[in-house]
Amino acid sequence: MYSSPAPTDPLVRMPANQYRNLGDKRPLQSGGATRVRKLMTRLMLVLATMGTLASCMTHPEHMEAPPEGALAHRKASPEEMVRYGTPVDLKEVYWNAEERELYLRYAAEGKEYYGFTDSDSEQILTTHFNWFPTFQVHVSDPETFEREKTEAVALRVEHHRVWREMILSTVNQLTPAQPNEGIVLNSRDREYFIYRNDAGDVQIIEGMVNKPRGIPLLASYRFESLGETLTLLLTEYLDSQGIQDNVVVFATGETGPYARPFAIFRKSDGLLLFTSLEPFTFGSTPGSLGTTAGKSAWQFTRSYWLEFLNRPVSFFSRLGYFIRDTAWDISAGVTVSTFAYPDADEVEIPPVNEGPGMDLEAWEKELDDVFAEGAHLGKATLLIGGDQFFPRAIAAGLDAKKSFKMRTYIFDNDDFSVMIADALRQLSFDLEVKVMVDGLGTQMAQNTAPGTLPQDYEAPIAITKYLKHDSNVQVRSLTNPWFTGDHTKTTIVDGEIAYIGGMNIGREYRWEWHDLMLEVTGPVVKAIEHEFDSTWAHAAILGDFVYAGFSVANDIEEMAPREGDYPIRLLKTRPSESQIFRSQIYAIRNAKSYAWVQNAYFASPEILYELVKARLRGVDVRVIIPLAGNHGIMNANNVRAANTLLRYGARVFTYPGMSHIKAAIIDGWACLGSANFDKLSFRVNKEMNVGISNPAFVNNLKSEVFETDMRHSVELLEPLPENWQNTFAAIVASQL
Fold first, then answer.
1. Which tens digit of pLDDT belongs to each residue from 198-227?
2. C or N terminus of the chain, fewer CB within 10 Å?
3. What pLDDT score was predicted for residue 449?
4. Mapping DSSP to helix (H, G, I), strand (E, B) and coil, where does residue 701 land?
5. d(CA 329, CA 336)
6. Taking the mean position of all CA atoms in its chain, how far away is CA 717?
7. Does residue 641 share a domain with residue 535?
8. Residue 540 CB burial class (10 angstroms; 0-12, 13-18, ≥19)
9. Which of 240-254, 283-297, 397-411, 462-476 has the lowest mean pLDDT?
10. Apex CA 598: angle with CA 596 and CA 603, to 5°?
11. Are 687 and 580 in contact (CB under 8 A)?
12. What CA–CA distances, in Å, run from 296 to 289, 451, 528, 588?
């Protein structure tokens, strides 16, 4: 039996006026995570367009999108695009194999509509390479439909009730048999928490923030990744009904923004694709100029005039460090770029070494000596993408008993962020909730809205005020004197579980970008919490004095290690020290076997040079970058970096869409967290990475992240087009 509120699509259906306008649009770039850099561009790297529909369909991996406006003469104007609050009733479908076109007649909310789609109308879902292909239906008219169908073949149509039963059967298979143990099923940009009650009935709840407290989350699934299960169920249904048709069109019952109301299934090879009734949008939309100017003025006042009075020691010391680091980086970058590289035409690129890598035990001892501090014990679990991280962190927060501490560079004000804020506000009445955000990072993110944001969504002007309103949430917004920022992303629950990595709080991190977090347990959590508490103290009024008092009075709390714990080293960037930079550059210099890197912002001339030197020693150097990143200046810089690496024999992979992962594996030593490969992360900002040599963890990172992402990326086999603009971008990016 299934017990749920009036169901929402395709799992549970709610009245139309209760729908959250969550779009299924996947941008290649989004303004939601704009940091200090203000230059942005739109470099689209397009994944597959389908060669055919239904009859002779293939799905090549990387083809160009059709020219802009190629179908403009037959597409609907914006006012013609209709969103439905009730399931669409599919009446007739015809397929013209010669023209590769599908013609549809459907009805919704008392009206009848006509439409068509073809192989040029695939929605660009580059970020989600594992999703089902989706094609936009363009509005047509009765006369055109009747004329075109005479040259086409009718396809069998199945009601959306059939599709719903398939989904419920899938849910039943995935849901744990044990009562009160749950899973999350992600579909488009919605999530459903599913469990069995004491009677064994499946309960479906939309939104992880509505999860009943005390019911553990065991696993996270994405509907679009369940192709084999759906194919099996659809095939079994057709066989049980004696349906011999090879191609069948199912109404899905999906409604609301960017719904996919029709699914096309080809039985012979299990091909499954969808159609949508409106285009998915991309990019970002600017915020109010007046609001942006006001926020900028206040942040400037806080970071300079008030910071000078409130934290004078930090204010002047950061200025000194910034001047020192800028002078050093400029001189080092010019020296490396101008004099260090050998002539590529005169260099013989050696084959990749087949021997062992560096001695990891000696390497860890070297790090102990260099940084005068050792690693902590603990255990780390990879959480890849928003589907894995956010449900896990939300579930931990809802089940917390004492405290929830969040430190993030960006806490956006989009619909997903506000949902998180609402959950924290409610949680604050039961336990201590502290939220620490970077003032400039959060403000810049709120200056633009993701292109996927629901059209009628109204964002709060300031998320920090929203968090504190009618709640007990404690919020501190950090200042940014001399371009310094706090780029760290950590969340600590009850002092027992910590999350660390690259994800901020925002729609793109939940639904759109490829990113990585770690769930950490064991004594290392206390060290992460101590870093949070010390930064919180420094953010107080007269923070220099409060911080000094905290440092004297508080040491890292002890916690007994657990079975299976292994060394986890916390590596930091502060204005006075560059542990993350130094550890990675030393590791690359020591590398003997391989050095694999994935980072969106590849702007360090010194790291680039050391990777080239490593390759010329026979080290297997591989780099994954998103060619279509979210910062124009960095995209242009990445072209130059990629070409340099290619010139000296390294392998370069361009990830389809935006990858925000910041990770490296060097001869079995992993370094990952919040830090980019740029000056801000290596010298200026506060950052936190972890260094881990545990073989099981490193092998998992290697297979689940690096090898998987290489398979889904395009390997560059020849240099990308490059001109003076890329050279200029590299010079500018080296100081960002």
1. 999 999 999 999 999 999 999 999 988 888
2. N
3. 74
4. helix
5. 10
6. 27
7. yes
8. middle
9. 283-297
10. 105
11. yes
12. 10, 23, 31, 40
Among left, alpha and beta (phi > 0; psi -120 to 50; other), residue 522 is: left
DSSP string of 16-27, one letter each residue: GGG---------
**For residue 733, what is the enclosing H or E element?**
helix 724-733
Phi, psi (rounded to 5 degrees) for 154: -70, 140
Band (pLDDT 50/70/90 cuts) for residue 156 is: very high
Mean pLDDT of 87-113: 92
Q: For residue range 590-628, what is the model confidence (pLDDT) as tens digits? A: 999 999 999 998 889 899 999 999 999 999 999 999 877
CA distances from 222 to 171, 219, 228, 706 (A): 11, 10, 12, 21
Whole-angstrom distance, CA of residue 419 vs CA of residue 417:
5
Last residue in a domain, options 205, 222, 239:
222
616 domain-assigned: yes
For residue 207, what are the domain limits?
Answer: 167-222
Alpha-helical regions (H) of 93-208: 142-149, 160-174
The DSSP-derived string for 444-477 is HHHTEEETTS-TT----S-HHHHHHTTS--EEEE
Angstrom distance (rounded) from CA 339 to CA 337: 6
Task: Give the CATH number, domain containing residue 444.
Answer: 3.30.870.10
Residue 44 lies in a domain: no
Q: Give the full edge-to-edge strand order of the sheet including 156-158.
A: 134-136, 271-276, 262-266, 247-251, 156-158
Q: Is 277 exposed, middle or buried (0-12, 13-18, 19+ CB in 10 A)?
A: buried
Amino acid at 25: K
User: Based on the structure, what is the number of domains in the chain?
Assistant: 2
Backbone angles phi, psi at 546, to 5 degrees: -65, -40
Could you write out the three-class secondary structure of 579-590?
HHHHHHHHHHHH
What's the distance, Cα to Cα, between the start and end of the chain in Å? 57
Helical axes 605-616 vs 579-590, angle rounded to 10°: 10
- Residues 472/52, Cβ–Cβ less than 8 Å: no
Prediction pTM value: 0.85
Question: What number is the average pLDDT over the span 174-189?
Answer: 93
pLDDT at 37 over 60: no
Average pLDDT (61-81) is 33
Q: How far apart are CA 601 and CA 216, in angstroms?
A: 37
Q: Compute, in degrees rounded to 10, the torsion defined by CA atoms 279, 281, 282, 284.
A: 170
Considering only CA atoms, give the Rg of the chain. 27
Q: Is residue 79 part of a domain?
A: no
Q: Answer for the pair 562, 528: CB distance below 8 angstroms, yes or no.
A: no
